[in-house]
Design a protein that fits this description.
With 265 residues, this protein is α/β, with parallel strands linked by helices. It contains 8 helices and 11 strands. Helix 1 packs across helix 7. It is globular, with a radius of gyration of 17 Å. It binds 3-hydroxy-5-(hydroxymethyl)-2-methylisonicotinaldehyde.
Length: 265
């Protein structure tokens, strides 16, 4: 059988049983981009977009076994991390990825769309100490950037300095997503990359109630672009352009007085 040229990307993240975020969002996004997606499951999350009920971390040896067998046997072009539920899961991931030179996108998942905390302070510390130095790009939203910098970000005017400070601190690129800032007008995301800021202004698109996974999907789309060999600015620009169509074609269900939506991959 001839080999084919389909690029491969790996996501290391939590499995979301409601299939709107985490591993499931990443694999659907990879598929949409013509990428073969691999997954290493860091935890199993019992949740909907409206409630995080339980997070069960994968045994560290099981996380390590998934990573080792995949890296051994597949020509992986790019990797992304999502929810890593413990210090040990962060350190194990960082240790293994450090042994290989594969572009790495870190989505520093800390808080679910429900507002539930998904990580604790020690895990965030491991993320900054161990994983960010191995990353190519980190993609915080405003609350995550505030946690990384230990300062507040209150206006669009502060986005560029914040993206630069995170990028320079870890010697990586940083895409700071401004969507959490108040207001109804355009939204600004700022990419700090190779000592330059690049501004991405786009219209605010309201999301339906009860949706999650937009952050996972954006970082997976960037990872797909890098796996296809695109440069960072182009991969980010295309990923930002990819999201509105998924929001506009979102699915919504009502069941037992519970309204729930999912991006329309
Ligand atoms: O949206 C952040 C996120 C990431 N990864 C997993 C999740 C969530 C949110 O709930 O469950 C697995």
């Amino acid at each position: 059988m001839a080999t084919n040229e389909t690029p491969i990307a790996l996501t290391i993240a939590g499995a979301d049983c409601s299939a709107g975020a985490g591993i499931q969002a990443d694999l659907k996004t990879f598929l949409n981009h013509g990428i073969h997606g691999l997954s290493a499951i860091s935890c199993v999350v019992a949740e909907t977009p409206r409630e995080v009920r339980q997070i069960e971390p994968t045994e560290i040896s099981t996380l390590e076994a998934q990573l080792r067998i995949l890296i051994e046997h597949y020509p992986i072009c790019a990797v992304k991390t999502g929810l890593l539920p413990s210090v040990e899961s962060v350190r194990t991931t960082a240790k293994i990825l450090k042994e290989h030179q594969i572009p790495l996108v870190v989505d520093p998942v800390m808080i679910a769309s429900t507002g539930s905390n998904l990580t604790d302070g020690e895990t965030i510390h491991a993320l900054t100490n161990d994983l960010l130095p191995v990353a190519t790009l980190v993609t915080p939203n405003i609350p995550e950037a505030e946690a990384l910098l230990d300062r507040t970000i209150q206006s669009e005017g502060e986005l560029e300095a914040a993206a630069r400070d995170i990028g320079q601190r870890y010697d990586i690129s940083c895409l700071l997503k401004g969507g959490h800032l108040p207001g109804e007008g355009d939204r600004l995301d700022v990419l700090w990359h190779q000592d330059q800021a690049c501004h991405f202004q786009h219209p605010f698109i309201p999301t339906p109630a009860g949706i999650h996974g937009t952050g996972c999907t954006l970082s997976a789309a960037i990872t797909a672009g890098l796996a296809q060999g695109r440069d960072m600015r182009e991969a980010v620009a295309r990923a930002i352009d990819y999201l509105p169509q998924l929001i506009k074609s979102a699915h919504t269900w009502e069941h037992n007085n519970y309204r729930i939506s999912c991006l329309g991959w």
